[in-house]
Write a structure and sequence with these properties.
With about 325 residues, this protein is α/β, with parallel strands linked by helices. The chain has a single domain (about 25-325), classed as Alpha-Beta Barrel (TIM Barrel). The chain is about 40% helix and about 15% strand. It contains twelve helices and ten strands. It has helices at about 5-10, 15-20, 60-70, 100-110, 140-160, 175-185, 205-210, 230-245, 255-265, 275-290, 295-310, 320-325, and strands at about 30-40, 45, 55, 75-80, 115-120, 165, 190-195, 245-250, 270-275, 310-315. Strands 1, 2, 3, 4, 5, 6, 7, 8, 9 and 10 form a ten-stranded mixed beta sheet that branches. Strand 8 (about 245-250), helix 9 and strand 9 form a beta-alpha-beta unit. It binds ligand PBG. Ligand PBG binds near residues 119, 123, 167 and 206.
Length: about 325
């Protein structure tokens, strides 16, 4: 008798069999929660396009990180909303600036037990919303911006950051920051580089969250990558590693799984992926309409990002996924 081959279905018959043969698992250990802290508020403010995510006061941020730590989430990445913006984004390196205060608080609350990552950019702090300082013709000045990033890195290091995460996509930013850190006694402070960061339409809700409008209806296409370019992403990552990046990142995640997989195959350093605000917002909007099963889709998406090769995932889902994984 010539029976059909049922080899592939045999190991799918029960939940426990499926657990045993699963190639990819999401663990709390993989998660980094992005968090927003705002200077001029007394109560946490909800963000309409990011349901469940808040602009935090210093106190509510501390409470949220305590909850995340209690759930076992190993890392958070902080974004600040200053009360005052200016052309260079000088609040970003003010020792008493909003993220620096938050970093000190987290150090007091948790010591070394939570990895406090500081997003390192100036776009939340500049009055024009660009990730750097402008030239006289309105372009973004690469090298003048690197000097600002060095100041921000030192302010964040002095405030107690466990890792700095340059997200501005200026050429040479990792090398400039590494140099400043090394020259000032922070040679063991790691850099998580937003290496392959694409000029994506999926950052929309984030810009609401941090109250950033790019002046003159502008965009970031002169410094962030063209979504069409996967090979160029490998060049970005290669250069960042050569400049001293300790962890490299691909951002956004789901539309760039091929880039994550390629990076995993080509480089041996830890690889992060950022499941960005628009990815979270699309999932939440569809789930709120009852069009998809939200928790199941969330787990499927994060599993896909890990399967593609990411070691860690920055995601607004961190809190709720950590709860379901308890
Ligand atoms: C820039 C920065 C952005 C995000 C993280 N860092 C916005 C941008 O490049 O315009 C987006 C994150 C998200 O959409 O979740 N400091």
């Amino acid at each position: 008798m010539n029976f059909p081959n049922r080899r592939l279905r045999r190991l799918r018959q029960t939940p426990s069999l499926r657990r045993l043969v699963a190639e990819t698992r999401i663990a709390v250990d993989d998660l980094i929660a992005p968090l927003f802290v705002r200077e001029d508020i007394d109560e946490p403010q909800p963000i309409a396009s990011l349901p469940g995510i808040m602009q935090h006061t210093h106190d509510s941020l501390r409470a949220e990180v305590k909850e995340l730590a209690g759930l076992g989430v190993p890392g958070v990445v902080l974004f600040g909303l200053p009360a005052r913006k200016d052309p260079t984004g000088s609040e970003a390196w003010n020792p008493d600036g909003v993220v620096q205060v938050a970093l000190k608080n987290l150090r007091d609350d948790h010591g070394d037990s939570v990895v406090a990552i500081a997003d390192l950019c100036v776009d939340e702090y500049t009055d024009h919303g660009h990730c750097g300082v402008l030239t006289s013709n309105g372009g973004v000045d690469n090298d003048a911006t690197l000097e600002l990033y060095q100041k921000v890195a030192l302010a964040q290091a002095e405030a107690g950051a466990d890792m700095v995460a340059p997200s501005g996509m200026m050429d040479g930013q990792v090398g400039a920051i590494r140099q400043a850190l090394d020259a000032n006694g922070y040679s063991l402070l790691p850099i998580l580089a937003y290496s392959a960061k694409f000029a994506s339409a999926e950052y929309g809700p984030f810009r609401e969250a941090v109250d950033v409008t790019i002046a003159g209806g502008g965009n970031r296409k002169s410094y962030q990558q063209d979504p069409a370019n996967g090979r160029e992403a490998m060049e970005e990552i290669r250069l960042d590693i050569a400049e001293g990046a300790d962890v490299v990142m691909v951002k956004p995640a789901l539309a760039y799984l091929d880039v994550i997989a390629q990076a995993r195959a080509q480089f041996d350093v830890p690889l992060a992926a950022y499941h960005v605000s628009g990815e979270y917002a699309m999932l939440k909007a569809a789930a709120q309409n009852g069009w998809i099963d939200g928790p199941a889709t969330a787990l499927e998406h994060l599993t896909a990002i890990k399967r593609a090769g990411a070691d860690m995932i920055l995601t607004y889902l961190a809190h709720e996924i950590a709860e379901t994984l308890q």
